[in-house]
Amino acid sequence: MNSNFASRLLSGKTALVTGSTSGIGLGIARSLAEQGANIVFNGFGDAQQIEKLYTEVGAEFGVQTAYHNADMSKPAEIEAMMRFAADKFGGVDILVNNAGIQHVATVEQFPPEKWDAILAINLTSAFHTTRLALPGMQQKNWGRIINLASVHGLVGSAGKSAYVAAKHGLVGLTKVTALENAHTGVTCNAICPGWVLTPLVQKQVDDRAAREGLDNDAARKALLAEKQPSGEFVTPEELGALAVFFCSPAGNQVRGVAWNMDGGWAAQ
């Protein structure tokens, strides 16, 4: 092993990151791996591409990696994934609840099955992973639970009732988890990104470009101008650096926060 890898912040720790085969989850997984954490990946995608992805991340950062394809809307599959992590690495030290889906419609036109799916994946899955990860963290008296909420965990936007409800719920779950573990070495915090150019957001850019007859660049600028005063996207790497901070000794007393990284969105 490269001697540069010897004394990294998270050496010997294991991180499980849901929805980590692309976008924000992948950015956070890479940042944690860079600090020496073994990574359990989870998410959808082509099996061969996923294998290539986790193998390459392991080689690049000199850590062990694995993948579990749990569908985050199914409690039994989440339980199987947590058992897999325990069997493979002896448990989960860092849990990043990032899996999420989106659907846009007004409340009266919102399909109930879409509401149920968004609540299941964006909120309920985090309850299941958290309840299963906590006993091991409490036993070791060290753990980090990081919930990817959203600026929509702090403010609303029209057309996103289920997403906003789920993300506000995730911020609430974060606070309660933090309080229940306040006298331990286990912390729980939420990261609340604004616009990040993930596949999910790119789809909204594409839809807008088509709807308003704009080119992609103009559609991106229009999307940012509405909400994000900096006029720039947040990057997965920036979010990863914040996750690393939460995992560091400097984050020991950061407990139950909803930390927005949103280019000024929520400051308005």
UniProtKB/TrEMBL annotation:
Transmembrane segments: none
Superkingdom of this protein's organism: Bacteria
Gene3D superfamilies membership: NAD(P)-binding Rossmann-like Domain (3.40.50.720)
Molecular function as annotated in GO: 3-hydroxybutyrate dehydrogenase activity
PROSITE patterns: ADH_SHORT
GO biological process: monocarboxylic acid metabolic process
Similarity-based family: Belongs to the short-chain dehydrogenases/reductases (SDR) family.
Protein name per Swiss-Prot or TrEMBL: 3-hydroxybutyrate dehydrogenase
